What we know:
Layout: E1 2-6, H1 11-22, E2 29-36, E3 45-50, H2 52-68, E4 72-83, E5 87-95, H3 98-115, E6 118-124, E7 127-130
Parallel strand pairs: 1-4
Antiparallel strand pairs: 2-5, 3-4, 3-6, 4-5, 6-7
Amino acid sequence: MVEIFEGAIPVEETLSKWYKSEKSRNYGAFIPFVGTVRDEDSIEGLSFDIYEPILLKWFEKWQEVAKERGAFLKMAHSKGDVLLHESSYISAVFSPKRRVALELIDEFVEDFKKNAPIWKYDLKNGKRIYAEERSQKIAGSGLLK
């Protein structure tokens, strides 16, 4: 399950909704990760563009990995502007076993940072500036020659 929010993610509401939807499914572990916009480099916040068709395909591959381990994933991300100290990203693993959930959340978040088709911009002085120095190329991206 992937949820896309316009602007900041309502963290408490989202995590509560996820917990309530899965609590009776006999998972022994619910491990969330919440990404928060930090106050650094004089930014006012971050802004995001998402290419949803590729994001959903990427997420489905991870859902298959989770399923093979008896686990289940959920993810939410913001598009548009997210101000300082607000959340732009949440993911969670539900699993019968804590070790599986702990390992899977680490692998998932790291791969998300490297391969999810989401572009980040700094918000400075009311302008949206591509954060090239903190971005990574997605495997297979670029111009065809």
